[in-house]
Design brief:
The chain has two domains: 92 residues, GMP Synthetase, Chain A, domain 3 (2-Layer Sandwich); 42 residues, no CATH class. Helix content is 56%, strand content 15%. Helix 1 crosses helix 3. The mean pLDDT is 85.
Length: 143
């Protein structure tokens, strides 16, 4: 269970790193990055930063290289802005959740479009679906 302190520290690190990346970081490899959330263990020695990167795999790889190159600078920003006994060692992880949700949405849209006739109307109406369900229930009860 996360303590309130680790949750506050994680959120503070997210804010510092996010603003530093957007406002101050001048590495051309690092663009279209969103800091989603930060995981910090109870000892506060490390911080795993989950990011979302807009672009293909090459852009993702370059962005992670740029962020890892700027890791020391970002840690110094954290040390300057937060009152911590130890500055956590940062690691960056690309969060695939958003990409996966986009893929699922595309597949659902494809399935939905397959269920439409050429006029754009649903091939199976809700009434047909309800009748099928009723028929199945009646058939099960007779068995």
């Amino acid at each position: 269970m996360k303590s309130r302190r680790t949750a506050k520290v994680a959120e503070a690190i997210r804010q510092v790193v996010s603003s530093a990346i957007v406002i101050e970081l001048r590495d051309p490899r690092v663009k279209n990055v969103t800091v989603l959330h930060v995981e910090v263990p109870s000892d506060l020695r490390t911080a795993k930063i989950y990011i979302s990167i807009l672009g293909d795999e090459k852009a993702e790889r370059l962005t992670l290289q740029g962020l890892n190159a700027a890791r020391g600078w970002l840690q110094s920003k954290i040390a300057d802005q937060l009152q911590l006994r130890l500055t956590p060692i940062l690691s960056f992880v690309s969060d695939q959740g958003i990409k996966k949700s986009i893929e699922v949405s595309k597949k659902l849209r494809e399935i939905y479009n397959e269920d439409l006739d050429p006029d754009g109307e649903a091939l199976i109406s809700e009434e047909d679906d309800e009748e099928t369900s009723q028929d199945e229930l009646e058939q099960e009860s007779t068995d």
